[in-house]
Amino acid sequence: MIMDTEALLRSLTGDLRPVRRLAPPVRRAMGWFAASLAFALYVAHVVGLRHDLPVLFTDGRFIIEFAAMLLTGLMAAAAAFCAGCPGRPLWERFAPLPFAGLWIASVVFGCWQDLMRSGAAGLAVTPDPICLPTILALSTIPGAAILVMIRRGAPLAPLSTTALAALAALALGAAAMRLTHDGDANVMVLVWQVGSVAVLICAAMLFGRRLLHWPERHA
Amino acid sequence: MRSAQSGDARAYSLLLAELLPMLRRVVGHKWKNANTVEDIVQEILLSVHAVRHTYDSSRPFMPWLMTIANRRIADAARYHAGRAAHETTVDVMPETFSGDQPKSTQDLNETHDLLRQALSILPESQREAIELMKLKELTLAETAKVTGKSIASLKVSVHRAIKAMRAHLERK
Questions:
Q1: What pTM was computed for the model?
Q2: Residue A68 banded pLDDT, cuts 50, 70, 90
Q3: Coil, strand, or helix at residue B92?
Q4: How close A121 comes to chain B (CA, Å)?
Q5: From residue A190, how far is each of A172, A185, A187 by CA, in Å?
Q6: Residue of A nearest to B6 (CA)
Q7: In the CATH scheme, what is the code of domain B2-85?
Q8: ipTM for this model
Q9: Smallest CA–CA separation between B62 and chain A, in Å?
Q10: What is the pLDDT of residues A6-17, one digit of tens each?
């Protein structure tokens, strides 16, 4: 015991200052998403949109995949902000999973379509090392922004909060990449884009406890 | 808590004073040691203070508080489990080791005699090198200046002298 509890209470209440209340998680998520989406679209525009984009947006499967990526990003951000608010229900942390599942399912369905159309050649995987750094680059600014925002919350679940924040930024980065990166082989998207997102989420989780922790006790 | 968020120290003081016995009871259910209970209660109070801006006044207060309390109790359990895994309990900590008993005056005299004998068997040049460098603690350069010998020759002399003295002492 470092100090008497009554003395601790006196020190906590002695220099009490007003605090800025945290905005509701959904509002924070909407704000982050709007700013990050604007950034991602701007970067995609600067890098150069792919030429077959109008055709792609007539494909129902692609529209579902793209919408699922954006919704995964939005819901993951909301879930990360909810995880930092004590007393909120646990199920909120799983909110992005249906959308992430829809994203993966739409890509897997695309793989099946490629297999039906081109046979085994439609499932050929070739190296595409540009995916991981591109997604990382597109996600860096939204990732840094959401990191600053989740650090304002309570560090109740550092690993899952970091994973959700990383998923939010990376899903948005992957969506922006779909607008710029040529090549429609869905198996390549599954392996290199979805795979890169999964690897980067795991990497982010390694730093979870360092990024989100309770304040050190000095007194 | 809403008043505390606005900076009302009196309301905050009343709230924490009301929470204190309840937190002690909650932590006391899981920990028996009074000092540990008080430590964890203090951690909870500090955590509540650190994240008081996360309280949403449109939601109930108790789930907010108990989430923080349970998290800090779990953190304390993990911390204590980790510490216990790396600690060994002993009844009495030995103050000195048995091999480190100080030598008696008689032992010291015997050691001195043996060293003196070992020194006496050395040739003059080697004995001089040992006396200057090991007993008077001169540097190689200083010894070289005193004796007029080269540093390399002094190194050889000291090496041979120590080897001869060790052999002599082992025979004894």
A1: 0.71
A2: very high
A3: coil
A4: 52
A5: 16, 9, 5
A6: A18
A7: 1.10.1740.10
A8: 0.76
A9: 8
A10: 888 888 888 788
